[in-house]
């Protein structure tokens, strides 16, 4: 018999600020091992993010390996046992019906320990996400009152999330357990995600992998529609994660301007004769990594002394910079110097033409006078004088 083992490896990434933390944890073990999911703080709760099973019988008996998970997904079984609490134990073959047919293998679970301050647990709340330029990423979890033991009926439970301008909101539904038959097309109780009155997604059952819904603008409404007749319903309710995505457009630097902007990148350029002092180039492309830019914001102002430094220190000038500078000189000659030279030449030609015309007109009266004098009887005049 294969020797059972337990391997627990904690890969921790904590987001610390005044609003609490979210700690990501990874643990794994064999199909019959007891996995212990635990959080370091008692006021934190577990949110199961992912569960994967890797069979050890692929090479020896590939034909016996099922192509899909059991009728109950391991993550769904983990949600039922572990979501919303700070500590639990889980055995795949015992707590997930049908998993015993998988044979020998290894189950890996990724889960988050969410501090109480990062959880919104009351209905009809408006969550305003701050700008990433102030405190960084905006994220958190939301669950209904009573989660994971029950949820309230008769009155709907609504949450409104507002992101900064030019950002959007992504919601991931990690756990949903509502009263009703999931085989019916119309759910008696359901969770609805909408944007400005437009329904983006609605469901009453859990999907694997968890469904992600992204808003069209900077607002998103999530509404839990419970039974109108029951006051308390014996299901967990809902647990979802929200985060702001996209990057606000940074202001253009002094002596610079925005060239273009899309969802993933933006290009800025300095005016002719200026450059960014940190990279010593006129153009700069910045990339949006989820919720923030890959450079410090705001951008540094363009500086005209950078080009002087580059000219005096050839080691700072790359071949690309030299090519750009040569292109700029050619552009200046073609667009500025050449038209000026052409205009000056036209003026010179016009001046020469006017001078020739002026000289020609001066010579014409003299020629006419000579013609008149040449027609007088000069011989007769001399005879009269002698007489």
Automatic annotation (TrEMBL):
It comes from the Eukaryota. The chain crosses the membrane at residues 336-358. Pfam families: CUB. Residues 123-245 form the CUB domain. Keywords: Disulfide bond, Membrane, Repeat, Signal, Sushi, Transmembrane, Transmembrane helix. Residues 245-304 form the Sushi domain. This is CUB domain-containing protein. Residues 1-20 form the signal peptide. CDD domains: CUB (cd00041). InterPro entries: CUB_dom, Sperma_CUB_dom_sf, Sushi_SCR_CCP_dom. PROSITE patterns: CUB, SUSHI. It comes from Ignelater luminosus (Cucubano).
């Amino acid at each position: 018999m294969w020797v059972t083992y337990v391997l627990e490896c904690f890969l921790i990434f904590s987001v610390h600020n005044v609003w609490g933390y979210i700690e990501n944890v990874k643990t794994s073990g064999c199909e019959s091992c007891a996995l212990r999911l635990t959080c370091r703080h008692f006021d934190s709760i577990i949110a199961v993010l992912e569960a994967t099973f890797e069979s050890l019988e692929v090479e020896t008996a590939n034909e016996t390996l099922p192509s899909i998970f059991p009728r109950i997904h391991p993550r769904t079984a983990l949600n039922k046992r572990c979501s919303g609490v700070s500590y639990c134990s889980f055995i795949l073959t015992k707590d997930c019906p049908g998993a015993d047919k998988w044979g020998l293998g290894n189950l890996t679970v990724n889960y988050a320990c969410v501090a109480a301050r990062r959880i919104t647990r009351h209905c009809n709340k408006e969550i305003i996400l701050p700008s990433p330029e102030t405190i960084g990423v905006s994220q958190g979890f939301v669950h209904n009152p009573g989660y994971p033991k029950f949820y309230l009926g008769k009155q709907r439970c609504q949450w409104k999330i507002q992101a900064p301008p030019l950002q959007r909101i992504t919601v991931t539904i990690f756990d949903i357990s509502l009263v009703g038959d999931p085989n019916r097309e119309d759910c008696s109780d359901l969770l609805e995600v909408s944007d400005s009155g437009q329904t983006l997604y609605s469901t009453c059952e859990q999907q694997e992998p968890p469904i992600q819904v992204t808003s069209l603008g900077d607002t998103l409404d999530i509404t839990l529609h419970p039974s109108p007749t029951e006051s308390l319903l014996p299901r967990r309710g809902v647990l979802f994660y929200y985060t702001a995505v996209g990057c606000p457009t940074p202001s253009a630097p002094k002596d610079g301007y925005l060239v273009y902007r899309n969802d993933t990148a933006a290009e800025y350029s300095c005016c002719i004769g200026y450059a960014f002092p940190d990279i010593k180039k006129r153009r700069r492309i910045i990339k949006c990594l989820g919720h923030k830019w890959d450079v410090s914001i705001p951008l540094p102002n363009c500086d005209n002394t950078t080009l002087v430094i580059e000219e005096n220190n050839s080691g700072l000038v790359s071949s690309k910079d030299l090519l750009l500078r040569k292109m700029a000189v050619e552009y200046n000659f073609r667009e500025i110097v050449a038209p000026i030279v052409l205009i000056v030449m036209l003026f010179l030609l016009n001046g020469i033409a006017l001078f020739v015309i002026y000289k020609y007109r001066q010579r014409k009266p003299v020629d006419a006078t000579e013609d008149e004098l040449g027609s007088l009887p000069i011989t007769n005049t001399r005879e009269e004088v002698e007489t």
